[in-house]
Specification:
alpha/beta; Rossmann fold
């Protein structure tokens, strides 16, 4: 059973002068398999920092608290160990990797996570099938990863990686940003295919309710000032869409 458990997590970023600035101020959250959690909040609230702290980005330092996956200490793992353990981060700004083809990148990633290289013919069949479901042209397999890709193409590549790597817990950081309506629907369909399989949970970080019209969350959490300040269901996302975050930011609301 895949369970990501975050307890009283504090994390900071190193400034240019070497000092640490705290961003996460005591995050408590549990994501279990079969659950989809949406984290919503204004710009600068620390949502992306949470995603990067889970993934092990070296820019962020966890100063206290705990982060476990199926009872294992995630904070003691390297980035690649976290991926092999079953964590996946879908990035808001996917990086370009000139000279590395999509197919070579994906096969290398799959090999690292599965522990052995899949047979080439079987992998190509699997990859092309997943690409077809995401409306990705087969020619993209031989293009350099994300180089010259549009925003929507980059985000579909992130979902392609997720579907092939089959993690236990997928953290999707503003995967809907910059997408037109058609691309949004394709990405949402990929997320729904992924989460329909047993043993999988999703943590979806977003500003807006629009992707939640296609990916129905079980839980919605309002994130302000580096922590969760309110919990609810899908109705909370709808209220945020119409009312915004002002009542949280103006009052400096914090859950105790």
């Amino acid at each position: 059973m895949s369970t990501l458990e975050i307890k009283d997590l504090h994390a900071s970023v190193k400034e240019k002068d070497g000092s640490l600035r705290e961003i996460l101020r005591g995050v408590d959250l549990t994501v279990r398999e079969g659950e989809t959690h949406a984290i919503m909040g204004p710009n600068g609230s620390g949502k992306s920092t949470l995603a990067y702290a889970i993934a092990g980005h070296p820019k962020y330092t966890v100063t206290s608290g705990s982060l476990t996956l199926d009872g294992q200490d995630v904070l003691g793992m390297s980035v690649d160990q976290r991926a092999r353990a079953g964590l996946f981060l879908g990035m808001q700004y996917p990086v370009e990797v000139p000279g590395v083809s999509v197919s070579n990148f994906l096969r290398t990633a799959v090999t690292a996570v599965r522990g052995e290289a899949p047979k080439l013919r079987e992998f190509m069949k699997e990859m092309r099938g997943a690409m077809g479901e995401l409306s990705i042209d087969a020619k993209f397999a031989e293009r350099s990863l994300n180089e010259g890709f549009s925003g929507g193409e980059k985000k579909r590549q992130e979902i392609l990686q997720m579907e092939l790597l089959t993690p236990g817990i997928a953290v999707l950081d503003e995967i809907d940003s910059g997408l037109d309506v058609d691309a949004l629907k394709i990405v949402a369909e990929g997320i729904n295919r992924f989460r329909a399989a047993p043993g999988r949970g999703v943590l979806l970080i977003t500003h807006y309710n629009r992707i939640l019209q296609y990916v129905q969350p079980d839980f919605v959490h309002v994130f302000v000032g580096g922590r969760i300040v309110e919990d609810g269901g899908p109705e909370l996302a709808k209220a945020l869409e119409s009312e915004g975050y002002e009542r949280y930011t103006a009052a400096g609301t914090a859950r105790t």
